[in-house]
Amino acid sequence: MVIRTSNPLAYLEEELQDLRARGLFRWPRLLSGPQEPVATYDGRAVINLCSNNYLNLANHPRLKEAAQRAIADLGVGPGAVRTIAGNMAIHRELEEALARFKRTESTLLFQSGFSANAGTVAAVLGKEDVIVSDELNHASIIDGARLSGAAKKIYPHRDVEAARRLLRESQGAPRVLLITDGVFSMDGDIAPLPDLVAAAEEFGAIMMVDDAHASGVLGRQGRGTVDHFNLHGRVHIQVGTLSKAFGGLGGYVAGSQVLADYLIHRARPLLFSTSYPPSVAASALAAVRLVQEEEGIIARLWENTRFFKEGLRRLGFDTGGSETPITPVIVGDEARAMHLSDRLFEHGVFALGIAFPTVPRGKARVRTIVTAGHTREHLDRALDAFARAGRELGII
Ligand SMILES: Cc1ncc(COP(=O)(O)O)c(C=O)c1O
Fold it and tell me: Lower CB density within 10 Å: C or N end of the chain?
């Protein structure tokens, strides 16, 4: 007979002790008040470089008004899973607006970008199939691959030749999916999508891109990497999120009508989990319209990005290969990255320290994202804080 310890969850405490010993135990800071370029964390107003609120829409009056109107007209909940309780018209309207925006035949809403990736990969692949995936692809892609049971073949980051080799050796599989993040969430670099698309076409693979960090950021009016590289019609599955540049919550899959028809029957997050409230769809719809009407908003994001990135580089920080508003300050050592983040907070800037398993070991960093809402004065103050903290810790 097996004698178990009195607390079967004791191993959790052991793991936590290990995190504490390595200086990696932390609870999220508490945000009181709205998500803004200057926000109140742990009771202190700081310059906020932590959000994915690229276009500063999370507290935008137009989006809030749309949500409030939807609550008044449509209530607070959709009642049940869409395939059971029916599609609310506002969800449909958002899907149609997103399809026009993405220039695809259809889009299908998911509760989040995470469930869109995981649910789609798991639905389109089976255990005889192969997924060829960049080593830095998002966790939701990895989880989708695990759920599908397909063989996972991982290529080094952005290495198209390695991806081609994996595609070539997978030709016997019934289906092969080549998948990449459009913009990599921890490094801010852009996938070599034109070459990946050409490789997928050469080997007859399905091409899928996760554009969570490109939606609202890259391409005309923020249509994403497919538009940025002018690859319309050549990427079979695009995932986007409404939780970052679009300021709210939710994910979507854009592609053919056949893809949408299939996913509504097979994607488990759609079949077994309730959709989000109508107010969330209404504010997302307002956001999609706003980015198409307000020409300057994305230009402001990029002006701020160039200014801040250049400032960090001039100070002597290692910002890796970032090409987008995600700018990592790579420190290497995990505890040191956390110290830098803490010291920045003391100097009035919130920029999160990120360590393994979110980034590879030895690549710990402080991750920054500026938004369209930061002023030049905010960014000057933030650079000043980086200079002070970086010198205090001997990083620069
Ligand atoms: C690359 C990438 N894909 C997908 C997601 C998931 O998006 P969401 O937050 O909408 O679930 C994220 C966000 O964390 C991401 O960074």
Answer: N
In the set 244, 339, 374, 378, the catalytic residue is 244
**pLDDT band at residue 3 using 50, 70 and 90 as cut-offs:** low
Q: Which residue owns the Cα nearest ligand 1 atom 8?
A: 113
Q: How many CB atoms lie within 10 A of CB 44?
A: 13
Question: 3-class SS at 181?
Answer: strand
**Residue 85, both tokens:** 């309780």
pTM: 0.96
Which residues have C-beta within 8 Å of that of residue 395, sequence separation ≥ 6?
317, 331, 336, 340, 389
Tens of pLDDT, residue by residue over 109-126, are 999 999 999 999 999 999
What is the rounded CA–CA span in Å between residue 383 and residue 381? 5
CA of 143 to the centre of ligand 1 (A): 13
DSSP 244: S
How far is the C-alpha of 137 from the C-alpha of 348, rounded, in Å? 32
